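As a warm-up, study this chain.
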Amino acid sequence: MLRWIDVLKFAKYSNPEPPRRLELSEDQWQARLSFAQFRVMRQKATEPPYRNAYCRSYEPGVYACRGCGTLLFDSSTKYHAMSGWPSFTQPVARNLIRYAFDESHHMQRIEALCNICQAHLGHVFPDGPEPSGLRYCLNSESLERLPAAEPPLE
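Now compare it with the structure written out below.
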């Protein structure tokens, strides 16, 4: 189980090695993603709070990166954080998320990115529920919910 100290160490020293990598040009990303997805995932924009696909959605399933199809989060770790964005406590594996310090907008945060395709997912905070205490606050535009039995996208 990841804890805040693990996230800080990854951001400061070295992120875990991803199981694979997907590298595309910005033109290829623009062709692959919608305008809103491209703004969030490649330009690090943030979608509006509460008016996004997964903020109030709690159906069972898994959440995959819209950029590369990698399964990142399970619905069993999703919870109602009242933040306006979908929130999770743990990724499905520790090497699927990349962490980076983010000091944009006059704040100090830890950015969460897909470790496979480097897509901006959102941020992680140390104010989540126990036992991990983590809150992955993510953009719905970066995710796609799949039924639990469905295989990952490639």
